[in-house]
Structures are given as C-alpha cells and as structure tokens.
What we know:
The complex is a heterodimer of chains A (about 650) and B (about 300). Chain A is α/β, with parallel strands linked by helices and about 650 residues long. Chain A is about 45% helix and about 10% strand.
Amino acid sequence: MTATTEKPAVETPAQRASEEQPAQKKPAAKKSSPTTKAAARRTSRKGAAKASEKASGAASGAAERRMHRQDESQEQAETSASTALATPLDLLLADAGTGPLRRFVPGVSGIKFTAGLARHPGKVVRRTTGLAAELTRVGLGRSRLAPAEKDRRFTEEAWARNPLFKRTLQGYLALGAAARGLVDDAALEWGDDQRIRFIMDNLVEAAAPSNNPFLNPKVLKRTLDTGGGNLVEGGRRLVRDFATPPRVPSMVEADAFEVGKDIAVTPGAVVFRTDVFELIQYTPQTPKVREVPVLIVPPTINKYYVIDLAEQRSLVEHLVQSGQQVFCISWRNPDVRHADWGLDTYGQAILEAMSACEDISRQDRTAIFGICSGGMIASMVLAHLARTDQLDRVAAYSLAVTVLDQERAGVTSALLSHKSAAASTQASKEKGYLDGRTLAEIFAWLRPNDLIWNYWVNNYLMGHAPKAFDILYWNADPVRMSAAMHRDFMDLAIRNALVEPDAATILDTPVDLSRVTTDAYVVAGIADHLCKWESCYQTTQLLGGDTKFVLSTSGHIAAMVNPPGNPKASFQTSPSGGGQQGTDNPADAAEWLDRAVKVKGSWWDDWTGWLAERTGEERAKPRRLGNASHEPLADAPGTYVHDR
Amino acid sequence: MTAEPPQGASGDGDVMTPLRRDVVRQLTVRGITARVSVRPGVGSYASKPPLLLCNGIGVSLEALQPLVDQLHPDRGLVRFDVPGIGGSALPPTPYPIAALSSWVTALMAKLGHRRFDVFGLSWGGGLAQQLAVQSPRKVHRVVLVATGTGCLMVPASPRVLGIMSTPRRHRDPEYAARVAPEIYGGSMRTDPERGAALLHAATRSGPKRGYYYQLAAMAGWTSLPFLGLLRQPTLVMGGDDDPIIPAVNPRMQAAMIPRARLHLYHGGHLGILTEADELAPVIDAFLDEPDTLRRPA
C-alpha cells in the first residue's frame, strides 16, 4: 500500500522500475506497466468519471470498449446493480469506523491541491477564461455542449428543446467540466489526485440540475400530473429512509423479496452449525454426482446468498445441476459479543467446514471456492495447509473477484492512510464491530450518481417505489464485521502482507502463497471498479500452481451472477500454464489481455467444466443429506442468513 | 424448483431425515421486516389455533428454545423478534404497545392465522395482555408468565429496575453472570452461569436502540384498568422467587381476570425456561382444555 499520505506514490516510472526489482525468486509484477498507468491517468483526466469507463491501459482500453459495446444494451437495473457490491477492504478500513463524512474532508490533499493550482497560475487563468467564454456561448444559445449519450439523468426532451432548461444544463456541464479540469491542472500525485477528484466529482454530481425539484422538467411534469402527490409520497419515503441507518435512499423496497421464498431457494439443509457459521449442503439434482465435494467460502462482509439468488440466477443451483456435491458456508452475522473473532477464527471455521464436507462425502479432499473477502481468508488457509503438509486435502481452488495484492487496488486505496486506518480500527474496537450499514453509506457515496442521486430523483422527487432487483435487495441486507477481523484485514491491506512470503500469519503459520501449488481458477470482472481486474490478475503471480485466469464481462457482482443464456455474456481467457506457473500468465496484465481469447457465453459453464476434471469420478448421488454425525438441523437457507 | 419435501421420503428411495420443523423466515409487515420462526401444527393440532410466543425484553426468539423443546411436538408455534431486536429491523420511530399489538395481529394474518393462542413472558406478557383485549376475537387463549400489569404494579427493588434499564446483560456475559442471581432468582441463584448462557448464547443481538424502544413502549402503559375486560380463558403463572415480578403481581392478575387460573411455581423469573420440563406440560394441558363457553360469533 504505497498510496498513503505519509508515503506518496512512487514518482517516476523509471524510479519505480528500479525499486521494483526485489530479490525474489519469481517475477512478481506488482503493477501494470508504466505506460498503461500513464494512459490510465490520461484517460481519467478526460473526465471519464465512470469507473467502468476508465480504460486501464491503451490495449485493454480498446478491448474494454469492444466488450462494453456488447454490454451496453443490458438493462439499466443490471448496470446499477453491478455497481452495488461487496466491499473492498481498503474502503472498510478507511472510514467505516467513522462514517462517510471523513471522505469529504480534503485535508492535506486539499492544501496540496491549492498549492498545485498556485504553481500553475497560467493554467488556472486559461481554464477560467475558457469557462467564461463557454458560459457566454451558453447564454447566447450557441453552445454545443451536450450530456454524454449514456447519461440517464438528462434524457428528457425538455433538456434539449426548452431554451431555459437547455441553458441550465449546458451551464452546469460547463461548470462541471471546469471544476474537474482544475484537478487536472493542479497535477497532483496519484493518491492526492484520486482523493480530490473524488470530492470534486461528488460536488459536481450533487449540483446537477436534475436533482433539484424546481429545475428537473420530469419532476415538474409529474408534480403537475399528480397535483403534488409525488412530493408528498417522496417526503414520506425520505423520512422513512433517513430515520434509520443507512441514511441513504433505499434502492429496493424492504419487502421486495423474501430470503428462502424467492431468493436463496436452492433446496438443501444445514448439516453443521457452530457459533461462527452454518454449513449448508445442497440437495443433489442429478442422478450421479462427482465424488469430491465443492465447498464455497462466501464473503464475510455480506450475506452468502449473492451466489444463490432467484432460480436461474443462482451459481449454487448451476453447480448442483452440473453434478457437483455443493456445500456452502453461511457466516453468522457477528455482534458485539463476537468482537474477538479474527482471521484465526474464520480460518479455523473454514478448516472445520472442510472436515465436515470430507466426513459427509466420505472423501479426503475438497474443492474450495472463495469469493471476495472469503477468498482472501481461504487463500491464507490454503497457505496454512501447504505449510502443514495437508495441501492434498484441496482438490482444486477457485477464486472469484478477490484481490490478494492490494497495491493500488483502485480508488479506495488512495483514500486510505495509516492514520485513518488506525482511527477506524480504534472506532470498531470500541464498538466491538463494524456496522455494515455504515459501509453501505460509504459505498453509496463512492458512486453517488448511480447509488444516491438516481434514487433521490426516483424515490423522493418522482415518488416512485424503487424497482425490485434481487442484487440490490442483497446489497441492502448488510452484515457486521467483528472488530478483530476488521483489524486483521486492515493490517493485511496496509502492509500488503499477502504479497511478501511469510509476512502474514494465520493459525500460527506464516503465509506464503507461492507454496499453494493446487490448480487454481481465478475469475475477475472487467468493469469491476472495486476489485480492479488487474489487481485480481496479480493473484496468478502469487499462487504457486497452475492458474487459469478468466476475465468476465461486467462488474463486481454482475461478474459473479452471470447465468448462462445471456447472449451478451462473454469472457476472455488464455490457456493455463500446464502446471508451470507463469508459462501463460505474463507478469503484466495488459499483456495477458492481448493474448487472451474471447469466448462467448458465461464463465459458469467454463468453470463447471474445469471443476469436473478435478473433482473425481462420478458416483450415485448420496441417499440423504448429512450423515449420522452431521444430522440436518434446518432447511436451507438456514437461520444465520436471517440475522440482521 | 425440484425441492424435496422437508420430511418423509421423496420419489426414488431417498430417505431424507425429517428436519426440525421450525422454519425461520423474514416477513415484511407494514414496511417493517421481521424475523419469524414458524412451526406448523401437525396431526391433531393441524386444525387448532397455533401458539404465538411473545418474548421477554431484548432477547431474540432463540431464547425460547428450551420451552419450545418441551411443548407438545405437534403444536403449531410462531415466534418472532420484536422490531429492533435480534433479526428484525429497527422501526423508524418509537412505538406504543398498542401499535405493536396491531402490527403483531397483521403479522399473524400474513401467516394465515386468524385465530391463535398467546403466550407472554415478562415484557411479552404485557404485549399478550394488550393483544387479548385489543383483538378479543383473534386471541383464543392466553398464557401469562412472570409478567405484571405495567406501570401500576408492585414493582421490583430499585436496584433490579436499574439493572433492567439497560441491555448490558445481553451483551456482556461476565456482567450477566454477575447479575443473574440478583435479577432472575430461582435456580439462577445456584447456577448463575446458566442464566448468562440462556440470555447470552442464545440471543441474536440487535441494535441497542431496539431495547430502549421496548422500554419506552411499556412506559406509561398499564393493563390494570382493562384486566376485567379480558374474555379469554387465561393461565397466569409466576415464580415464588422472582425479583423482577414479585409473586403478588400474578396473584393480582389472576384475581382480576374473569376466567383466569393461577399456577405459582417454585423458581425465578426465567423458571419457564430453566424448568421447562416441569412447566411446559401445565401450559399444554391448559391450552388443550375443551372450550366450555360459547365463542363470540
């Protein structure tokens, strides 16, 4: 984690290259190449604020645009839902203890920003005169400014045809562009630049005329139509939403779905329960199943059912129907009494779950599938097994949207400093846990256009109920994180400890990921703005086995929830390295992307094929769930999933 | 969905073990999402009204498990977390007990139960009394355990009330073990760890604010004036060593409710949970009595 205020980001590519030649056995490339970084900086300066638009390099940018063109026609809900997601660690760390307000305090970055502007007075003058000229053109009606084609806020005809609204909009666009331009002019270092850009984007987006009931033609029309009923209804919603945390507009009605009724419905039973988790065994749906069970380790910072949404949208169901024996951990939602649950607690839990899977399926191996933060812990557990000579208990390792190498893992790490990290662990320590609802607030402010203003207009100004969308329901069902886990995660992120062999420990053994020689299947989402795919890609450089990397379309969650049958879905992959690490996974992510082959369809199918090769022979399905020592305790989805 | 029935055998010789019939689910009633545990009645109980269990203050539905395990296995049961407790969402504003009572009947209606029996323990006993008087046609029989008549009752000692005024005992196991004998009495005096375990291990914690909402709901509420209006057959139970609810309270309730009978037991505030094996049959016997009076049409 170099992106801190104390340790500014490395200055020059050359310098970085010289610094980045550690005496390591393996070619651990920790960053995409300097050229890509520069390109990325350039593209972001064009004001493409949308993370999904941010080309991560010249090469990948083209590919990304290519893939995006195919993705564009996806539903609007899908788009916004893909932005609602599990939380990246750095973010947790940065402000979860203290709430979202901190983020809006520019602090030292603000001073640097002002100083940066003072250093470039010429640029500032040019920027200001340019703005004045543009505003004059706007006033005269000669401006050609128009909102981006994809911008859903200004689709109303009045924005283009009504002179008054048109001028309002163009004036806003001119001012917004100038404000964002100032950040470019200040020529800040990476961390400060990201931080100030975040604040500026938020201000600009909050000021949009579409958020103002008196300036938004759509709202004015509706007020006329309903005689102000929309504002009464919207006011009611506003009071309801802001009475209880998270104090952000609700993205989904509380009763839009019911867990166990229309989501998390794949049949199965809880066969094992401890204080920390419930282990769900899913009922086989094929006459024959593979011998080796698959154990899913979901994120600890969300409910597990993101992988078991509605029928046909459930990864679990897909696995079961492809003939796998599926087990899934459902983490308990910890509260103040569980403040001391740390990495070791969760690591131990995974080991217990593995033992239960082995016992029930009468096998001595399990295939592990870790997701997001669950993937992080699972990776460490694998390293522990490697260290204790038990790695043969893992038949195959799959990892989805997980960042093990935190180096510059996107905007969130730029916002993280040692100081704020320490402050927030202190805060969670006092409270005993980190509240998921605070995270939801922080989260929403990371993508205000999609997650706040969009709903602001829809819920409060138009008085509509938000659309029922399962991913958003899941996202609005937050969990807590125990203080010790928060501390441990934070420590990992700050030190970027998983990259260095033996820098982190779990269950009293040092973690060296290169000892994990199990075959691995690593999935990332190309538009994932939180676990950037380049960061996920670095996992291929860390693990010591034959690793197949797969790059799916869409973002953090939509990449996970990627059922077959979507004609738009595709993924990119390259042949894996035949057991020799690095053979086909070059150190540089952009280079990998150049070589990758695009495959139509969902990676789910590709993955089940990959799993089938590694989960043993087929045998008749088990006659019952659980066994004598693990009697079924309750039907899936179990009880822990209902804890709020 | 090819869901196999949770019990019995499915088509091709699968022997699926009968699972525990309690199904925990989330239900949203009037905009508030609540965690509910439902055990449908079977056999001769399938057509009888289910028993709604109203819990003590600040604890989630798991805390009632010792009693549930001892009640007749075929009886239909409904347990729920009061909004703001355990797995239920915090309501946007504090609520009066009457509003909660009406919300609970809406919850039962959503579950498809027009008539039901009510069991109330401690704080839940207040809710049960309110339910009985507010929905006389829906509530069939009433069981009140270790509960009082609200703010007009013979109070506990100030020290006990002080301990009760915060949710700390549900959150801090050492503290719970320390205060358990003093506030719960009965077998807790000899075995305080058990009290801590009962409250601490079992409950799923909600926000502190939920507990204070519960306290606030009972502030200023009393059932004393309307106890005479209760039409339902009522069983009043209480412990003779209950620091929170001195035994005179259940006696008073039994005297004032027209169709009440009293069952005093040796034990403390949580006797119904710690000595469930002895007390659950009393409840079962009462609920299974034939109705002697004609029901209101």
